[in-house]
Amino acid sequence: xxxxxxxxxxxxYKCIKNCNPEKRKETTxxxxxxxxxxxxxxxxxxxxxxxxxxxxxxxxxxxGIFSNGMKNKWNGLNYIELCSGPGRCILRKxxxxxxxxxLSILRHPSFNFxxxxxxxxxxxxxxxxxxxxxxxxxxxxAYGIIGNYNYxxxxxxxxxxxxxxxxxxxxIDPTDCSVPFKTIRFIKEYFKNVDxxxxxxxxxxxxxxxxxxxxxxxxxxxxxxxxFLGNEDYFDRNEVKNLAISSNSxxxxxxxxxxxxxxxxxxxxxxxxxxxxxxxxxxxxxSGNPKGLEFWKKSQNISPNDQRExxxx
Length: 313
Ligand SMILES: C[S@@+](CC[C@H](N)C(=O)[O-])C[C@H]1O[C@@H](n2cnc3c(N)ncnc32)[C@H](O)[C@@H]1O
What we know:
Shape: globular
Helix content: 25-40%
Number of strands: 13
Distance between the termini: 25 Å
Largest sheet: 7 strands, mixed
Strand content: 15-25%
Structural class: alpha/beta
Bound molecules: S-adenosylmethionine
Strand order of the largest sheet: 9-8-5-10-11-13-12
Order of helices and strands: EHEEEHEEEHEHEHEHEHHHHEEH
């Protein structure tokens, strides 16, 4: 099933292809390729796995239904992306370049219904690249800005440019489980009317480290996971300790995920659902409004491969 707009696919013949994690230490910097630039605009590209397409597809499907369905029900709609990247990716397996999440949204036919869009990343170089790309699109209600999900005071400054009466959609796309839950709480409290799509990247580090984090108080990523989850005592609970001894890491991740959903509910994000992307992460939708969930379900009916995938359960 194709998107309603194309992602400006191009083959990049200079891509070395199939760089493994070791090789990528030489060929990339913060995942930005040092070997080749975009065939389309000669700006740097982000090296990604093929599954990136699924994320972009699912985000765009929701964005279309959300913006069309809500445009007349609110005074305005805003879009925010936290962890925006530079706007264009290169699939390391095939050497094919495509628009990343930010550019795909800016080029979405329904972007017209958005009053303002902000793209946040903590890497200054990435934001400079993205802003050049936004300039090429001649869009004047969107910009990239440096920000960090660990600092809510900086986010507050950035958000002050938004009208709080509007409905907001925020997409959060980190590479690991390091976005603190306090940031999610802050965003929900700040905007009130905000729907979230979050990358829940359990497959990149959580699944490998959760047992260690649960059984060893000094384990390096333990504090990161506790801050991500928002429960300081999670690994001290007897049932979690028992699970770590008697069970496998997949079951532990599932328990951790259920706890996360509980925490989302506690801050008013009552309605949530997730889609699995290649055993690596879940695209998690969360809203305080049942209509949001209805739209999400509708938008995810057809998977990027034209078939339903197994939902994490
Ligand atoms: C998975 S990539 C984003 C990819 C992009 N959304 C796309 O699909 O085209 C994650 C991004 O998060 C940024 N990042 C890492 N730590 C961050 C932080 N603390 N605050 C904000 N952005 C961060 C990285 O620079 C990187 O560009």
